[in-house]
Write a structure and sequence with these properties.
Elements lengths: L1 H25 L4 E9 L15 E6 L8 E4 L5 E7 L2 E6 L11 E5 L2 E9 L3 E11 L2 E10 L5 E9 L11 E9 L6 E6 L11 E10 L7 E2 L3 E4 L1
Parallel strand pairs: 1-7
Antiparallel strand pairs: 1-4, 2-3, 2-5, 5-6, 8-9, 9-12, 10-11, 10-13, 13-14, 13-15
């Protein structure tokens, strides 16, 4: 009898451990989600800011009171998340540097998932030209505005790393505009003599940004340019 009870106890424990192992496997991430955010009209990637840029907000359905989670875009407008779970999701794209999107339903399958978000950016920065001369960085560009909200500010950011932007910068110049963009060439000048973290003999990344006056808008950017000083 004692021997039988011992065997039963061992089987119960084995069943518990097996159940735990199965549960852990069931709830381990089993999907990845990658893709990009592109301009609906031009097809170009919509440049982002890693720390202060647009985010992909998502809700995993099928749970009671599921939390809103988020993932970030890389500077170039691509994204990659390898720790997703397969299932049904709501994806929300309403706080970025583009006109807010309608919430979408997305079926995340096991394994690799890819998606391209197509948006209309608040501001397109075009015809960029960044040069160093006479101790100054001169950035020239044009803007295309897609909404009625004014352009709040234009900026030039500098940093040794290509991730340069509003939050990642060692030097910046910002001009407050608060006006509608015109079909003219804009110019921002950065005198490097005014910044102790920038010096000649080194190379830095410079990036032009423009901020819309729309609610909760993030900076629109041109690609970063490496310049030898």
């Amino acid at each position: 009898m004692k021997k039988n009870l011992t065997i039963i106890a061992m089987l119960v424990l084995f069943g518990i451990f097996s159940s735990c192992e199965k549960d852990n496997l069931d709830y381990a991430p089993d999907a990845s989600f990658s893709g990009e955010i592109r301009d609906l009209e031009t097809g170009e990637l919509v440049q982002q800011d890693i720390l202060e840029g647009a985010k992909i907000y998502f809700i995993e359905l099928g749970w009671n009171n599921p939390p809103v989670q988020s993932m970030v875009f890389k500077n170039d407008g691509t994204f990659q998340n390898n720790l997703m779970f397969s299932g049904d999701y709501k994806i929300i794209m309403n706080k970025g540097n583009y006109i807010p999107q309608d919430t979408i339903r997305y079926q995340m399958k096991k394994g690799a998932n890819t998606h391209t978000f197509e948006v209309i950016p608040y501001i397109r920065i075009t015809d960029t030209d960044i040069k160093f001369r006479d101790g100054k960085i001169v950035a020239k560009f044009k803007m295309q505005q897609t909404t009625s909200e004014p352009v709040k500010a234009i900026s030039l950011f500098a940093h040794p790393d290509i991730s340069v932007g509003y939050r990642i910068q060692t030097a910046s110049v910002t001009y407050e505009l608060n006006t509608i963009a015109e079909d003219v060439e804009y110019e921002i000048v950065m005198d490097i003599n005014n910044y102790n973290k920038i010096s000649t003999g080194n190379s830095y990344y410079f990036r032009i940004g423009a901020l819309s006056g729309a609610s909760e808008a993030k900076y629109n950017y041109a690609p970063a340019v490496n310049v030898d000083l």
